[in-house]
Each structure stands twice: as C-alpha cells, then as structure tokens.
Specification:
This is RNA polymerase sigma factor. By secondary structure, the protein is mostly helical. Helices cover 67% and strands 0% of the residues. The longest helix is centred in the middle third of the chain and has 24 residues.
C-alpha cells in the first residue's frame, strides 16, 4: 500500500472512527483527542501494517488499545499511593466551619519556624513542600525512605508545637 493509498484509507475511516471514539469516551473533546492520537499512531507505525490484511481492524485495534492505555494511565495517576500514612492532615469535624490557615499564622512566622529547624529536618521538609515525593527526596539526599518519612513527620509535629500558641 502506497503512502497516498494509506492516507486515503485512513481518512475514509475518519467518521466511523470518530463515532467509535465517542462510544468509548462519551465526550466530544476526548473523542477528538483519541481520534487524533489514533491517526498519529497509525501514521507513525505505518510500516508495521501488514499488506493484504484488514486495514480497518488494524486501525480500530490501535484506537481501542490507545483508549485502554490512557484509561489505565488515568486510573493509576488518580490512585497513586506512596504507602505513607497521611493521618497528619488536620482532623476537623465536618459540621464546624474553620477559619483559613492565614488567619492563624502569618506566612513569615511559619517560614521563620521552618528556617529555625536543624538542616536534617528542614531540608527534607522544604523539598516535600516544593512537591517532591518521599522517594525523590530519599534519592536526592541519599537517605533511606523511612528516614525521610519520619523526618517530615517529626518536622510537622515540631511546627505544630511551635505554632500552637497561634491556634486559639
């Protein structure tokens, strides 16, 4: 199949592929994205298509597999769990209205307390606040994962104690 024949066959399936993408995603924009990604993969892997086989089935398989892979990737991203105990988050009653954290603490006071910590606690905690994952911090600081988690936990406890006078 020549490049022109391949492109014409691909464009000839566009409406049917869009309908199939809509049945998979149930969203017009996501269906358009899936169609575009399918076309890109088909064009990229054109050399993988075996002559005298079912072209339509090949394209539909690409779309189905792309959809499944994207779905799995999204589910995994939503369910990423690093094994840490996240009980450190504030345990507020749902029926009370609480003021924002800014009303209790000035950011200067919080930063002052963080900077007053020893480096072994301050560095991992600041990295955590900057968005690094526990594993990334452990790798960058050449520390065991458990040590990083405990230092961040103890830093939270130290800050909670140091800032307690501002809480009420």
């Amino acid at each position: 199949m020549t490049q022109v024949q391949f492109n014409n066959a691909l464009l000839g399936l566009q409406d049917k592929l869009l309908y199939y993408a809509l049945s998979l995603t149930a969203d017009q924009e996501k269906a358009q994205d899936l169609l575009q990604e399918t076309f890109l993969k088909a064009l990229t892997y054109r050399d993988k298509f075996t002559q005298n086989t079912n072209f339509k089935a090949w394209i539909y398989t690409i779309m189905k597999n792309t959809f499944i892979n994207n779905y799995r990737r999204n589910v995994k991203a939503k369910n990423t769990f690093d094994g840490a105990n996240n009980d450190f988050h504030l345990k507020f009653s749902k029926d009370r209205i609480y003021p924002s954290p800014d009303s209790f603490y000035s950011s200067k006071e919080i930063i002052k307390n963080i900077n007053a910590l020893e480096n072994e606690y301050k560095v991992p905690f600041k990295m955590f606040l900057d968005g690094y994952k526990y594993k990334e911090i452990a790798d960058k600081l050449n520390l065991p994962l458990g040590t990083v988690k405990s230092r961040i936990f103890f830093t939270r406890k130290k800050l909670e104690k140091a800032l307690k006078e501002y809480a009420n």
